[in-house]
Amino acid sequence: MKEKILIVDDQYGIRILLNEVFQKEGYETHQAANGIQALEIVENNVPDLVLLDMKIPGMDGIEILKRMKVIDKDIRVIIMTAYGELDMIQEAKDLGALTHFAKPFDIDEIRGAVRKYLPIKSN
Question: Is the pTM of this model over 0.90?
Fold first, then answer.
């Protein structure tokens, strides 16, 4: 079984980029453009790691994170945010986020963090 990553971002280009990178790395990926989709995927597919954008129209990243933790208190989440949103970063970390990346991010840094928190199990 492949490790599952859920990519939550309202920007299509970012979802596609991350999706492509992590599929090539050997992960199973799921994508959500908003909080409702993200929570459905968490309930139905139980991802091993979530890459969560904080600025999403409708339900913001903090609200999505809170609701994900209700579904699975041990869910592992890495947040992505614009520069300077320090209160949001701190609140997300208080809610259990592992780490954060500022946008625009370095894809190799995100790849490294995902490998750290979700190493690919060899068969």
Answer: yes
